[in-house]
Specification:
The structure is a single chain. This protein is of the alpha/beta class. The protein has 13 helices and 12 strands. The strands form 2 sheets. Strands 9-8-7-6-10-11-12 form a 7-stranded mixed β-sheet, sandwiched between helices. The longest helix is centred in the C-terminal third of the chain and has 14 residues, at 239-252. It is elongated, with a radius of gyration of 21 Å. The protein starts with a strand and ends with a helix. Residues 30-93 form the Phosphoserine phosphatase N-terminal domain. GO terms for molecular function: hydrolase activity. This is Phosphoserine phosphatase.
Length: 317
């Protein structure tokens, strides 16, 4: 295991031995990738190297919020992702365009992505249909049920419930750790930020206000005299709608498709992740992990900053 930037590496890994430096480095492939996470320390870095063998060099190291990040170059092997996950770390190839310091567009899912819950499940618990609705949600997010049909089935169970239960859920929305810091950083660099959600405006409107987002789109409950009717108003925001939203926003804000990022966790996010310049699966369902460009299993929302800052580092080489 070798490095080009000893001063930077030893700042974050004081135990890093100078014997890892060599005048004659083996010929390496051109693949660059990052290993990162809150639990990345010298011992884990060494364990990762031992599993991989002498197949990479370290180019750089830095911190992002509470994550430690190392930039590597080597002969990429698919099993390295498994090795990283065994150490509770995330690993990603840097083969995308967006950079933190180059303004772009982020479109994110809401439930289980921007926030830690599925709002419809929490509403249903208060309405007395929690077990049924949670079961339907899980199947829909895994891609086992048509999203629109599953949404209408879940909302139908809420018929006759008071609008007040929506207020209760909104007052206790648990934001995903790292979300606020990430959005603030992106906005400082001129990024446009948006939510495209299969959830509901009751919650996306709230997030738009507190996070100062540029745009949100989601579904609407039909409410009459303070009572939920069990119906959804207007067109349902499904996978196709999310993907189209990202493309339309990129055009509206004059952002090239390569500079767009999408992040989500469920099957109805796959189309959006596919059309984005960078698609990230955050703590996602198996089907999404299998198809997404980047998989984040251990870091929180701030994984986006780790990924985007890696391209900034590469431009300095």
């Amino acid at each position: 295991m070798q490095t080009q930037n000893l001063a930077t590496i030893t700042q974050y890994f004081p135990q890093f031995p100078t014997t890892f430096l060599a005048d004659e480095r083996p010929t390496m492939g051109q693949t660059k990738f990052i290993l990162y996470g809150a639990d990345l320390n010298y011992a884990r870095l060494q364990q990762f190297q031992q599993k991989c063998g002498e197949n990479f060099v370290i180019l750089d190291g830095w911190t992002v919020l509470y994550n430690t990040v190392v930039l590597l170059q080597g002969t990429w092997q698919a099993q390295w992702l498994t090795y990283a996950h065994e150490l509770s770390l995330d690993l990603a190839q840097i083969d995308f365009v967006p950079r933190l310091k180059q303004a772009g567009l982020l479109v994110m899912d809401m439930d289980s992505t921007a926030i830690q819950i599925e709002c419809i499940d929490e509403i249903a618990k208060l309405a007395g249909t929690g077990e049924l609705v949670s079961s339907i949600t899980a199947q829909a997010m895994c891609g086992e049920l048509d999203f629109e049909q599953s949404l209408r089935r879940r909302v139908a169970t809420l018929k006759g419930a008071s609008e007040q239960i929506l207020v209760q859920v909104r007052e206790n929305l648990p934001l995903m750790p790292g979300l606020v810091e990430t959005i603030n950083q992106l906005q400082q660099y001129g990024w446009k930020t948006a939510i495209a959600s299969g959830g509901f405006t009751y919650f996306t409107d709230y997030l738009r206000a507190i996070l100062k987002l540029d745009y949100t789109v989601s579904n609407q409950f039909e409410i009459q005299d303070g009572i939920l009717t069990g119906e959804v108003k207007g067109r349902v925001v499904d996978a196709e709608y999310k993907a189209t939203t990202l493309q339309q926003l990129a055009q509206q804000y004059e952002i090239t498709p390569d500079n767009t990022v999408a992040i989500g966790d469920g099957a109805n996010d796959l189309a959006m992740l596919t059309v984005a310049g960078l698609g990230v699966a955050l703590h996602a369902k198996p089907k999404v992990q299998q198809q997404a460009q980047i998989v984040v299993n251990f870091a929180d929302f701030s994984a986006l900053l780790c990924l985007l800052s890696a391209n900034d580092r590469l431009t300095k080489e």
